[in-house]
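Sample intake sheet
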Amino acid sequence: MKKQSMLACLLAIGTAACAQKAATPLKRTAATPYAETITAAKLKKHLFIVAGDEMEGRETGTPGQYKAAKYIIEQFRAAGLEPGAGNGEWEQPFSLMQDTLAQSSIQAGGKTFSFGQEYYASVKEAVSQQLGATPAVFAGYGVATETSDPWKGMDGSEKIVVLAEEDGAKKGAITDKLRNAAGHGAVAVFMVSERYNLGGRGGSRMRRTGLYWPMMQTMEYIPNTYFVSPEVASAIFGKQWPELVAAAKTGTTPITGQVTALEFKKGTEEIKSSNVLGILPGTDLKDEYVFVTAHYDHVGVINGQIHNGADDDGSGTVSVIAMADAFMKAKKAGKGPRRSIVFMTVSGEEKGLLGSQYYTDHPIYPLAQTVTDLNIDMIGRIDDDHKKDTNYVYIIGDDKLSSDLRPISEAANKHTGLNLDYKYNDPNDPNRFYYRSDHYMFAQHKIPIIFYFNGVHEDYHRPGDKPEKIHYNLLAKRAKLVFYTAWEVANRKDRLKVDRNEK
């Protein structure tokens, strides 16, 4: 290596990596000049905007997410991409629903109890409900034993059934109790436990549901279930909680009481979101599509703190932007790809892969003609397993559907010299990362994928995931690996084989 090149290497990536580079020179091809436009400086400039405080954590369906979408569109347009969502549009819009609690209280024994203080209910599963004076019946633990059956002869019709929750009760067991109460005509169920005395710890997140698709909530009838503190039960029955527990244990139930009033009022709001798509049309194989994806949403503002999401997944988002620009530079120099490349950033990933699910349910380009999805989700940091070996990236899913992808990926890595870690390809991986990002929606349709990932770290989904903590030289190196892989897949003669069948 020439002295000048060695100095540049030392400045860019450090002494140890340069020693490896000097021993094994990185391969250069026609793609190299364009890959080298993906620089740490460009990525940093984009990421301080995408993960800046003004984006407010980019939560799906919020102004911060809309601002991020606008910025991505501006960068795609500046690079020279064509709008990729059809009809000259950059965005593929979709709607989600969210339920929000408007008002709730319980009155009994001359006291008024507040939501988030002495009780709560699942805003997603419960329906709006308003009751005046209503009889209540205490059915103990709601479990039949050899010596007693709290349900035998009990009339729960038009009553509130109150149950004591057993310590360590499993969800399935609770569901059986609720079904029993429903079968006895209960209009509501109060589940009592000392851990339901929340003391104001029930924050705003308890008062709204996650986002869900319209018409998703079709379930069997279960009465509204309110998880209440012992203080509520004592007010209803005029007895101290230890007395009620003793009755539950000895089977001396039912015990009757009254709820003076109950109100649970919620509203449903339509939440609008979108995926952002830009396309670089191919040449002779333009009707086949290579997707390069990342999610641009994050988790927003929690307890007043902005969760910037610089690594998750600002790092992937800015990498897609930089790759789009690099491929367009090649196109303008007469080296455009044979296959079309779609650069897509999706929202709703943090809500359950909703944006990528919407795309694969409503594809703009035929799924049968989609060759691969190269998905990037967190490639700007270092996890605890690589504190000593920082020159790495996790490669996930490259061996699941196509025998072609790993050889292509490893050949592409001759340009970047990363250590490719396949740890999370293990089918027994307890983290199940293969199923936890947007590529999986493509994989379900037998489209070969690679998921690029740096592993979790102490700032995962926390306020500390800030752009100041990103390793920008490493981010650029990882993004170049994706670029070289996409270049090969987009330009090779043969389409990737789909010759494996692992979901």
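Comment: The first helix runs from residue 3 to 13. The first strand starts at residue 82 and ends at 83.
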